[in-house]
């Protein structure tokens, strides 16, 4: 059986390409006679015709994943938008096209992005508008490229980097756009400034009937502005918990040397993606009334079920192997975020405990790594004595603090001895962000936000002990 994830091929040759398309505009839409796309250049992907592609035999769904979950208009194996298998084949084509331009972190992530794009075409009939959080640890992970692909395939895209909240309030209506927000750290990061209105809009817009009230017009009347709209946000590092909790999280990574993608070029990429977008609209726009009453069986509960429900609805409409694939992706990605949350919570606990150690030691400017470890491990109510196999060590400590921009540095104490140490001023920024209830206490006034990268902190004014702060000697350094 043909692999649905393999690139689509076309036997057509010698067919003239349509005029060069402009990204974001593409070609005029003509449902009656769409331009044939064939004979691409050597680096261009080819697109199989909607009418010439045979319906594929799909893998049966398992009882544990989809038993008792019929599609809103019929059994799962029947596509309610046309002949049996048409919706499934269309999602296969979309999945292949997305995977051609972007390397996503997992097979489940590729499935989720595919279904999210399709769900944008039925969002006027949905109860929830899931966010797509496209995050990565550094630049160059493909976040912006994924937004480029989304822009050409989602329903009525609205790309923004620094748009005024007032503009977004006014463009969202009964048929809302799909918001695509690049460089989201300019909204949620330290340079956010006056963007709290946009942040609140993105939080409220996850659920229908959560309007934002503003004084508007020359008569200054209270006016309710709708906020309900699907949104994809891309940025470096995790977004705020209120966004991540409402989002399908795509954790992008840099490509490995052997991972290759097709260059995104407007002359062939835009026509191909627009053809898929139009096929999605033809199939899903007539289903908006149907999906409004759909109640699919979900493998998760609560907020996660609200977020994933639109994707599962689309999968059930498509039928074939998509209902099982969507639920498997939902479980895998939801569990992965639970693990991420637990790790984040542990790191926040570590920041709080280190703050208490610095405060208990009289506001010293630096503490030796081994002294800090000794105090942390002696806390019977903390998890550090049982962390790992032999308790928290210097390697674990540095690894847990790396995401906060904190690392040990060589520090020369007043007795002339040099040792690896953590400076208080390294933690000021992280304390203010992740445990602000403690950040205002203690002698931190006048301390710079962060030391220069790679430069050791200034010598402390006081004298630090060369041995442990209290109790027996600290644990041996483990490499």
UniProtKB/TrEMBL annotation:
Amino acid composition bias (Polar residues), ranges on this chain: 1-12
Domain DUF3631: 251-434
Disordered, as annotated region: 1-89, 441-479
InterPro entries associated with the record: DUF3631, P-loop_NTPase
Source organism superkingdom: Bacteria
Pfam families linked to this entry: DUF3631 (PF12307)
Coiled coil regions, renumbered to chain: none
Name of protein: DUF3631 domain-containing protein
Lineage: Bacteria, Bacillati, Actinomycetota, Actinomycetes, Kitasatosporales
